[in-house]
Specification:
about 525 residues; 6-stranded antiparallel β-sheet; 5-stranded antiparallel β-sheet; 16 strands; globular; disordered N terminus
C-alpha cells in the first residue's frame, strides 16, 4: 500500500545522502504530513532475495490504546468538527517538524486492519500508534486532505492547528503534491487565509564566497590566495579543508527538509574491519571528503542543528554503519540522485557529484568504497535497481507532464500572467515542451526558458496578475540576464511554471498566447 509521492518523499527524508535542513518547519511539516507517513517502509532497500515491499515490521504497532494526542475519537458536535469518515482504523502520530499531533484515517476498501497497521508502523518519523476502527478528529483542525480517490487505497489526513498562516500551504501541499482534495476547517474555513511570508524562512540561492585561508592553512587557489566556495548543499570547498570554515551552513539549512533522527549503529563484536588498515584509511578519506562538502552541515553530530540527519560521521566505531542500506547504494551511484543538482567539478573545487551520491575528488575510489560496503551487507546491483531514484518531490516534479491551463491560469489578453493557490516567489514562462525547472545550480533554468523572475529572500511574494516582463520591487529577473524577455507570439503555446518556493510548485500548465 504505497502512494508514489509518499514513497519518494519518505525515501528522500530518511535515506538521502545529501538531504539537509530547510528551516521552514510549517512547510516541511505539512509536506511530511501529506506524504511521508502515507504508506512507506522505514527502509526502502529490499532484503536480499525479497521484493521491496517485503519485511514490514508491525511489531512496533500498539493497538491497545491511543496516545494522548487529541485525535482520539472526538465528539464532533462539541468541537465543530465534521463527522469522521468511516475507516478500518487510524494512525496517530506527531509530526516531527511541526511537533503537532496528526492523524491518518484508512478509508479505502483495499485497506485491511493488518495492512493499515503495517503502514502506520512504517511512519517515517517513528512508528505511529494504530487504533483499529478508530476515527480521527481534533478540537483545532486546519482541514483534511483526501488522497487516492477511486483507487481502493484512499486515506484522509487530518491536520491539527489553529494558525491561519498554514492554510495556503496546506492547500498547496495537498493538491499539488498528492493530487488530493483539501477541505478547509477551523481557521482555514473562517475567512481569507494568511499567506506564509519570509519569517518562515525561504530558499537561499547559492553565493560564491572567497575567504582568506584559516590560520595555519596553505593559500587557496582563488584570487590572491583566497579559498572560494559556493554556499549550496551540493557544493564543496577545497580538498583537505573544512566546509564550515569557508561556506556557511546557514543557506544550506534553507535548501532541504531536515530533522535529526540518527541512531548510532550497534558495534559489531570483533569487527575485522577495525584491524584492516587499508579499510580504515579509506574510511578516513571518505570522511575527509564529506567534511570538505556541505554534507557535513547535516551529517555531522557536531554541525547539525538538532542531531545528525540519517547518518553521522561522528558515529563509532565505524561511522558508515549508520548509513541505511539504500543510502549506501545511492552514495555508491548504484541508485540515481541527479535531481538534487550538481556543480561541474571545475566549478566545485574539483568535486564531482554526477556519478556518486557524495561529491568526491576521486569518483572511482568513492564508488568502489561504497559498492564494497553495499555488497558486504549482502546486497547486489540487482537489489539496488529496485530502489527508486532519490529526490522525493524533485523526482516527481521533473517527471511531471503539464496539461492545459485552467481558466484562472496562463496569460490574460492584457498581457498579465495568472496562477492559482498562493503568491509566488518564482515565475517562469518557457517554451512548450521544455523540461520542468528543478533546483540550483544546474537544473533551475532549463533549456527553453523564455523568462524567469525570482523574488529575493527579503522580498514579498508576487500576487497573480503580474505583467509579463515586469520586475516588481523585491524581485530580480534571472533570465534573460539583460534586457526584456522575448515577446510571446499570439496563437503559440507556452508553459507557465510558478512556485511558492523552490520545489513547491503552484501553477504549471500550457497556455496559448492570446
Amino acid at each position: 500500500m504505497r502512494q508514489i509521492f509518499a514513497a519518494d518523499l519518505n525515501n528522500a527524508l530518511r535515506h538521502d545522502g545529501l538531504l539537509c535542513a530547510r528551516q521552514t518547519p510549517l512547510l516541511a511539516g505539512l509536506l511530511y504530513a501529506l506524504a511521508a507517513c502515507a504508506g512507506d517502509e522505514a527502509d526502502l532497500t529490499p532484503e536480499p532475495g525479497t521484493s521491496p515491499d517485503a519485511g514490514v515490521n508491525t511489531d512496533a504497532t500498539d493497538t491497545s490504546e491511543s496516545p494522548d494526542t487529541g485525535s482520539a475519537d472526538t465528539d464532533s458536535s462539541e468541537n465543530d468538527v465534521p463527522e469522521a469518515t468511516p475507516s478500518v482504523g487510524r494512525c496517530d502520530y506527531t509530526n516531527p517538524f511541526s511537533q503537532n499531533p496528526e492523524c491518518k484515517a484508512y478509508t479505502g476498501a483495499g485497506w485491511t486492519a493488518d495492512s493499515a497497521a503495517a503502514d502506520c508502523a512504517a511512519n517515517a518519523g517513528g512508528p505511529g500508534t494504530f487504533v483499529a476502527d478508530g476515527t480521527c478528529g481534533f478540537d483545532d483542525q486546519l482541514g483534511t486532505c483526501t488522497v487516492g480517490t477511486g483507487t481502493g487505497e484512499e486515506y484522509v489526513l487530518y491536520l491539527s492547528g489553529d494558525d491561519a498562516s498554514a492554510c495556503a500551504i496546506s492547500t498547496t501541499a495537498c493538491e499539488t503534491f498528492t493530487a488530493g482534495t483539501f477541505e478547509p476547517q477551523g481557521v482555514c474555513a473562517d475567512g481569507e487565509p494568511v499567506e506564509p511570508g519570509p519569517p518562515l524562512g525561504v530558499f537561499l540561492q547559492p553565493e560564491y564566497v572567497c575567504s582568506e585561508p584559516v590560520e595555519g592553512e596553505a593559500p587557496g587557489t582563488g584570487p590572491d590566495g583566497t579559498v572560494c566556495t559556493w554556499t549550496m548543499i551540493s557544493a564543496c570547498t577545497e580538498p583537505g579543508r573544512h566546509y564550515e570554515d569557508y561556506g556557511s551552513c546557514e543557506p544550506v539549512f534553507s535548501q532541504r527538509p531536515y530533522y535529526g533522527f540518527n541512531t548510532d549503529p550497534e558495534p559489531v563484536e570483533n569487527d575485522p574491519r577495525l584491524d584492516d588498515d587499508a579499510f580504515m584509511a579509506e574510511l578516513a578519506w571518505v570522511k575527509e571528503e564529506v567534511e570538505a562538502c556541505a554534507c557535513v552541515c547535516c551529517h555531522s553530530q557536531d554541525s547539525a542543528p538538532s542531531g545528525a540527519s540519517g547518518w553521522n560521521i561522528e558515529a563509532s566505531p565505524i561511522w558508515t554503519d549508520s548509513i541505511p542500506d539504500s543510502g549506501v547504494a545511492m552514495l555508491a551511484g548504484l541508485v540515481g540522485s541527479a535531481e538534487f543538482g550538481a556543480y561541474a567539478p571545475d566549478q566545485n573545487n574539483g568535486f564531482d557529484r554526477y556519478t556518486t551520491g557524495l561529491p568526491t575528488t576521486d569518483v572511482e575510489r568513492m564508488r568502489a568504497f561504497f559498492e564494497a560496503e553495499y555488497f558486504r551487507r549482502g546486497f547486489t546491483a540487482e537489489d539496488a535497481a529496485e530502489i527508486p531514484a532519490f529526490g522525493g518531490p524533485l523526482v516527481t516534479q521533473a517527471a511531471y507532464v503539464p496539461g492545459d491551463c485552467r481558466s484562472d491560469e496562463g496569460l490574460n489578453a492584457d498581457g498579465t500572467l495568472k496562477w492559482r493557490t498562493a503568491d509566488a516567489r518564482y515565475v517562469y514562462v518557457l517554451e512548450a515542451g521544455s523540461k520542468n525547472p528543478g533546483v540550483p545550480p544546474n537544473l533551475d533554468t532549463p533549456d527553453g526558458t523564455i523568462w524567469r523572475l525570482d523574488v529575493l529572500p527579503t522580498g514579498t511574494p508576487i500576487e497573480t496578475g503580474l505583467a509579463y516582463g515586469a520586475v516588481p520591487e523585491g524581485a530580480v529577473q534571472r533570465f534573460p540576464a539583460e534586457g526584456a524577455p522575448a515577446e510571446l507570439v499570439s496563437g503559440r503555446q507556452y508553459y507557465i511554471y510558478t512556485l511558492l518556493d523552490i520545489a513547491v510548485p503552484l501553477s504549471r500548465c500550457i497556455f496559448t498566447a492570446p
